[in-house]
Design goal:
single chain; alpha/beta; Rossmann fold; 2 domains; 7-stranded parallel β-sheet; 6-stranded parallel β-sheet; 14 helices; globular
């Protein structure tokens, strides 16, 4: 029996972020007798998924974080890596800022290269943004294939002709949609567990990072709480900004009404317990947490800086952040039609988010590349 194709995924750290969770969903589902995942990470810290990766047969390699000042060291690390690991035929890059450094090196060692965009970072004139955009731009002429979580993210990575290019693919952040099917008994049990009976429950799932705009979310909830003192906010996730947000909540006198739940394994059940999902990010690609929320039949109030490709069901209402927290709160309390919570699994699957179908497509894609066939024959139809 032939050995599986080993695909090298390059990422920062295998923690519970959107891209990382997507990779693990794929990794668990893929036929590992045919395709095996290995990972290059840019940290010495242990990631949340590291133990599971090794249990599934994957290897984890650690390279230095790119800081600009260590440019030559970073390049040499990659040259050394490919010299010592000739077994790889495919490299799949999820770091688009430094990919323009290591993908050309990978090509010299005979690897097929994939650049994968997971967000649609807006243009701005800050020095950091200009540097990152400058590093990312050459990728459109370097990679053999381009993946993106949305058309907007693809255009950002590969240019305005992304939808027409044969080597470009919209690749949904798929998951096990059936786990999120709405169920009254699951909702009742989880609300009882968290003492949320007879409460209006607002929720958010995402890491505590500046891009997620938690301060605005908390301001919106403050206005909601003025109208309904029994309202509760569930914040799921962790990150560098968490302590600041805990302090903000305390300063507003809302500590009894805001639950910081940390990293959780019961996201499908928590979504069932919520009444409204608020997502005021400054920018995103196509966040899987919003797709999961829709799968569970949960109304979603979302910033218009998130691509409108997120509107997979009528449950999504987008607002400008410029409207302010008070306006968002009014819409949250009155802006959704009164209707019974419904299962939206079929609509989400129809939009291309079934992990089984997506994994099968990716498996065929990798195998086709390894057989030197054109990836275009597997053009993604999602």
């Amino acid at each position: 029996m032939a050995d599986p194709i080993r695909v090298l995924h390059v990422i920062g750290k295998m923690d519970r972020g959107g891209a990382e969770t997507m990779l693990m969903n794929l990794y668990r589902q893929i036929d590992r007798s045919k395709v095996q995942f290995d990972f290059v990470v840019h940290t010495l810290e242990t990631g949340a998924f590291d133990e599971e990766i090794t249990s599934l047969g994957g290897n984890i390699y650690r390279l230095p974080v790119y800081r600009g000042s260590n440019h030559m060291q970073y390049r040499k690390s990659w040259v050394s890596f490919f010299k010592n690991h000739p077994q790889y035929r495919v490299i799949h890059a999820h770091l688009t800022t430094t990919a323009a450094i290591f993908l050309p090196i990978a090509k010299r060692y005979g690897l097929i290269t994939i650049a994968h965009s997971h967000n649609n970072t807006p243009s701005n004139k800050s020095l950091t943004a200009l540097i990152k955009n400058g590093m990312r731009y050459p990728l459109r002429y370097m990679a053999d294939y381009f993946f993106a979580c949305s058309y907007a993210a693809g255009v950002r990575l590969s240019g305005k002709n992304f939808p027409q290019k044969e080597n470009c693919f919209v690749f949904p952040n798929a998951f096990n949609v059936d786990e999120f099917a709405y169920d009254d008994s699951i909702r009742s049990n989880k609300r009882r567990e968290l003492s949320l009976q007879n409460k209006f429950v607002v929720g958010h799932v995402g890491r505590f990072a500046l891009v997620k705009n938690h301060p605005f979310l908390i301001d919106v909830f403050k206005e909601i709480h003025k109208q309904d003192e029994d309202a509760v906010l569930l914040l799921v996730g962790d990150g560098k900004q968490r302590q600041k947000m805990e302090q903000k909540v305390a300063d507003l006198g809302l500590s009894e009404s805001v639950l910081f739940l940390g990293i959780r394994q019961d996201i499908p059940q928590l979504l069932q317990a919520m009444d409204l999902f608020i997502f005021p990010s400054f920018y995103e690609g196509l966040p899987v947490s919003l797709v999961e929320a829709q799968a569970s039949g949960l109304p979603c109030l979302v910033s218009d800086t998130v691509t409108d490709e997120i509107k997979l069901t009528p449950l999504v209402k987008q607002l400008s952040l410029k409207e302010g927290a008070n306006f968002w709160a009014k819409v949250a309390m009155n802006g959704f039609e009164e209707n019974k919570r419904k299962n939206k699994v079929a609509e989400i699957k129809a939009a291309g988010y079934s992990i089984k179908e997506t994994t099968l497509w990716l498996q065929k894609f990798y195998v086709g590349m390894d057989n030197t066939s054109s990836g275009g024959q597997h053009k993604c139809l999602f």
